[in-house]
Write a structure and sequence with these properties.
Number of helices: 16
Structural class: alpha/beta
Strand content: 15-25%
Number of strands: 25
Shape: globular
Oligomer: single chain
Helix content: 25-40%
Radius of gyration: 23 Å
């Protein structure tokens, strides 16, 4: 097969490619750094030129910049954006009334495409240029893309020379024989997701408490945010060695830890020597590190986040953030009451998988308080979750909960023990009120109060 001849045959402009999209279609816009740019601009232009084009439904998630299709006239009446995990950009679309969240554990996404949706009219994705074997690499993700392509009627790849290439991934390429159209974009820099910024003193206190629990040879999963980032920074300056990586999202902290010589993966019981992730998003430093790096392994999220896979890795350490927690031990990590923030992602999978791992531990962490817009200080530890809040981690599943005031192991505690433990790491200014509320809820023993 002459791949170059086939390439020329399938090469087209973005404006021509988007003509395949019709009213009523379902269009997959990939995910994170693989979200199309040139195709987005062309499709927005088509919407503006053709007022009859409407009822187009999009799947996507973790947007790292605003899309042009969101700015078309009467967007709320002509498109829906269906997100698998919302970023701040997508929350704005949610507030405008045409952005919606699909409630699904991220690990289930590939199966869901294959078994439930069964058909996507048009699938789009940004890839690296075609290699000598006719393959287009997704670069920063494997995620759920193979499943999307398995059920897509039309597949359009948008080539970007700046997309990193993974060399030891699983299901991280699509062959030209499967592609219907190829678009060469303007090769913009791959969008960066800024780091969490400088760790606060609260972040550092929480990180120190977690650091006490990480042994040599541990395998790390880090969420995004100040606290996981602070843990990463402390690991760089620690004496820890032979760490491994098996994570949903690959972030800059892993690069820093690896460059400090702390990551070898030699102690991993599976995928020895490999840093495994479903998708990567961060700064240019991360993209340069991942590119053609044989230790980096992009894999489908149905593998990276599978509880059965995680449980096979000894000393698995999972570190994630929460929005708030109630005295029953229910964790909300995805909404503020009824206001949607992000999504379920893989947090519950890693909480469950880490506990099943030999020597494994999961940590849910947050600051004890937050400041509201009017300057009022509020507790993240609540008697009950606010009405409409989403339970990301049910109370039987939570292992360690950590604030700047301490860490507590909640596994298996009865309701009064759990309430006592959670209140013990609340901000001191809120403890008396929380005790009073616990008494009303009949989850407090008077003998607890000391």
């Amino acid at each position: 097969m002459d791949f170059n001849a086939l390439y020329k045959q399938k090469l087209t402009s973005a404006n021509e490619a988007v003509k395949v999209i019709k009213s009523g279609d379902w269009v997959d816009f990939a995910w994170g750094p693989n979200t199309p740019v040139a195709l987005d601009k062309a499709l927005a232009q088509r919407f503006n030129e053709d007022s009859s084009l409407k009822d187009v439904h999009f799947y996507g998630g973790v947007l790292m910049s605003g899309l042009e299709i969101f700015n078309i006239e009467h967007a709320e009446d002509r498109i829906t954006w269906n997100s698998w995990h919302m970023s701040g950009i997508e929350r704005k679309i949610w507030s405008r009334g045409f952005g919606f969240y699909g409630a699904l554990r991220y690990s289930e996404l590939p199966r869901w495409y294959r078994e439930n949706i069964k058909r996507i009219n048009v699938a789009t994705i940004v890839t690296s240029p075609m290699d000598e074997n006719g393959n287009f690499c997704y670069g920063l993700s494997s995620s759920h893309f193979r499943a999307v392509f398995d059920v897509a009627d039309v597949i359009i790849v948008e080539v970007n020379k700046n997309m990193p290439r993974t060399v030891n991934g699983v299901d991280d390429n699509i062959h030209i024989s499967e592609v219907d159209m190829i678009v060469e974009g303007e090769n913009p820099p791959i969008l960066e997701m800024g780091g969490a910024g400088e760790a606060s003193e609260v972040d550092k206190k929480v990180a120190r408490l977690i650091m006490e629990e990480i042994p040599n040879g541990a395998c790390l999963q880090l969420g995004i945010g100040g606290m996981p980032n602070a843990v990463g920074s402390m690991i760089v300056d620690s004496d820890l060695k032979d760490l491994g990586v098996h994570t949903e999202m690959y972030v800059d902290a892993f690069v820093d830890i690896a460059l400090a010589g702390k990551i070898t993966g030699n102690a991993k019981t599976i995928d020895k020597g490999r840093q495994v992730f479903a998708f990567a998003a961060g700064t240019k430093k991360l993209y340069e590190y991942v590119n053609n790096n044989p230790v980096c392994m992009a894999a489908p999220v149905s593998y990276t986040n599978d509880v059965r896979v995680v449980s096979q890795i000894d000393n698995f350490i999972s570190i994630n953030n929460a929005v708030d927690i109630d005295l029953f031990g229910q964790v909300n990590a995805e909404s503020s009451g009824t206001k949607h923030i992000s999504g379920s992602g893989g947090q519950l999978d890693f909480v469950l998988g880490a506990y099943l791992s030999k020597g494994g531990k999961s940590f849910i962490c947050c600051s004890s308080t937050f400041t509201q817009k009017d300057g009022t200080l509020s507790s993240r530890i609540r008697p009950t979750l606010a009405e409409g809040s989403i339970i990301t981690d049910p109370r039987p599943c939570v292992h360690y909960f950590v604030t700047e005031y301490g860490k507590v192991n909640l596994k298996g505690l009865s309701s009064w023990q759990r309430a006592e433990a959670i209140i013990s790491v609340a901000h001191p200014d809120f403890r008396e009120n929380l005790i009073a509320e616990a008494e009303k809820l009949h989850i407090w023993r008077r003998s607890n109060k000391r």
